[in-house]
Amino acid sequence: MTDTTATPTVPVHPAPVQIERLTLTAADGYPLAAQRYRSPTPAHAQLVVGGATAVPQGFYKRFAEHAARRGFDVLTLDYRGIGGSAPASLKGFRMDYLDWGRLDLAAAVDAMHQPDRPLYIVGHSYGGHALGLLPQQERIAGAWTFATGAGWHGWMPPGERLRVLFMWRVLGPVWTRLAGYLPWSRLGMGEDLPLDVYRQWRHWCRFPRYFFDDPQMAATTARFAEVRYPIVAANALDDAWAPPASRDAFMAGYRNSTVRTLTIDPRTAGLGPIGHMGYFRPKAAPLWNEALDWFDSLHTNSRPMSSV
User: Fold this and answer.
1) E strand or H helix at 233, and its extent?
2) Which of 78, 145, 241, 284 pairs as cysteine with 128 (C-beta 3.0–4.6 A)?
3) Could you give the number of structural domains in the chain?
């Protein structure tokens, strides 16, 4: 169980956070809407937020502002096909689900890289999948994930399992055939999704270990062995989409990283229900401080000792 009552080691600065709207350019030329949250004090570290599937970057605004007041320069972004990075119509829009990690999140890492400051990643759900897809592993000093799991219905509670299977086998095929994309927003679960994202996501969610169990993904998943920085993976017991067993099935793919798992019991932590999305709502601020404190500890421990 994670301790969510600790006071942050670095005070939260009360000054307003400057927010700058940016357009990043991915390696294939695709323009991406992003926002940079500049610390009101001299920043000591860089932080990139890798969002969840179908979740626009505005959802992470409160967390980004909080981290900026803790001395981090923070970048959020909309993946291609989502939010400010979506085309006028998703019908006929083609992409690879993996592009969100290997191209879009990679562009954010490039934009935030500074040789004199450590760079960390906070990944929500898909954002934890994307760590192993990044081409610039040497630039990252550590990562903290919330709600990252394997996506397989078998890891879910029975009621959620039935709902998810109905979505994959009935609603999804009908809706995508009619619309040419997945109108996910009709379920109140986020942004509409490009057709290719829906198809790949559904396919990999058939496997207990997601794409690690897909033989056609062997070359891609082999790259996860290149991740060697430390990772903390935090999942709540009431997260029906990514309970701890689902997390453990996926995070085993980071076989050369030191992965520490945190299981959050919302009842004893005093946070109220968390589910799959509550990690970034205001009541979860103690979890934010725990993650930021951990990043600060990595930064402190990595500083070279001064000579005497």
Assistant:
1) strand 231-236
2) 145
3) 1
